[in-house]
Amino acid sequence: MKNNFPVLLNSFFKALENEFNYSNNTIISYKYTFKLFVKFLINEKQIPLRNISFEKITKDVVREFLDNIEITSSINTRNQRLGAIKSFYRYTSTENIDNIFNCEQILSIRSKKCTKKSIDYLTIQETKEYFDVIELKCLKDLRNLALLTLLYDTAARASELLNIKVDDLILDNKPRVTLYGKGKKIRRVPITDNTKKIIIRYINEFKIERFSYLFSNNKGEKYTTKMLEHVIKKYCKKSNTNKNIHPHSFRHSKAMHLLEAGVNLIYIRDLLGHSSIKTTEIYARTNEELLRKNILVASNIEINKEIPKWQKDEELLKSLLDL
Predict the structure, then answer these.
(1) For this structure, is 157 an active site residue?
(2) Of 146, 154, 148, 120, which is closest to residue 235 (Cα–Cα)?
(3) Which of 143, 196, 252, 274 is an active site residue?
(4) Backbone region of residue 149 per phi and psi (left: phi > 0; alpha: psi in -120 to 50; beta: other values)
């Protein structure tokens, strides 16, 4: 029987990009999962590379691989690797009829429950204090201000922000920016007039051309996530922010601030580019203070009862105890 495992794996990766429109980061993650899995089959299960086939990959083999992942990483990482494997087996389920039993068995493996991480975000006051420490002493400072202001105002993912080109900006009386999100989804996000002024000043000072990336370093190279993280950490130290702030924290902060301002979750979902409102609901569940306020507003019925001092009822006691 011809080994069609490598053929279908190659076809699967092509489909992720061309048919399913998965993001580049997701495709890289899936490929890394199978890189680890193949190494596991070779080193731990002693299966030569040329002999790796669907028949050799059973439910127990996949579980053993996942156990190793959990030991060296975490339950969350284990679940991510399982998701990649199951996605591949769902894709091949109609192409690999001879191994349908193993396929169904692997698809039946369940994800493990894990403790959800708390959302790292800045309060409104902390956000103001953070931006207050950005001093405009040189052009580099102006670039940092434009970078971080646009990151917060758009609630963009790091990759979305760094892929913005000047041509993606519409800086008229209703300023907005086009973002390219996960699964190659496109959305237009409004920005404030203040952000618009900062961006216009930045573009003019740096003389950035229309089709160039909005943010690049002194060498003209496109900004990377590591560069963005470095800028964020720089001002964390100056603002004495003790929280673990990273690029996604600005996205979380914007969502929480909108929620606190009474903005409907539907609009927050659209701003963030979530495909489902369920993903956006995490912000409502996280904001305990907002929950407390809403409960207090809703609890408008006051119950004022004077609690009497209870007296022992001897007749009742006699009856209960058959005295």
Answers:
(1) yes
(2) 148
(3) 274
(4) alpha
Which CATH homologous superfamily contains domain 124-297?
Answer: Intergrase catalytic core (1.10.443.10)
252 is catalytic: no
Would residue 238 show up in a list of annotated catalytic residues for this protein?
Answer: no
Q: Which CATH number fits domain 5-107: 1.10.150, 3.30.70, 1.10.3680, 1.10.10?
A: 1.10.150
Among residues 81, 251, 257, 269, the one annotated as catalytic is 251
pTM for the structure as a whole = 0.68
Q: Where are the beta strands (DSSP E) in the chain?
A: 169-170, 176-180, 186-190
- pLDDT tens for the chain, 323 residues long, are 456 889 899 999 999 988 887 888 889 999 999 999 999 999 999 999 989 999 999 999 999 999 999 998 889 999 999 999 999 999 988 777 777 888 999 999 999 987 666 678 899 999 999 999 999 999 999 999 999 999 999 999 999 999 999 999 999 999 999 999 877 789 999 999 999 999 999 999 999 998 999 999 888 889 999 999 999 999 998 888 878 899 999 999 999 999 888 888 899 999 999 988 888 888 877 766 655 555 455 445 545 545 555 555 556 656 655 54
Domains 5-107 and 124-297 fall in the same CATH topology: no
Choose the catalytic residue: 56, 63, 182, 187. 182
Could you say which of 78, 81, 143, 157 is catalytic?
157
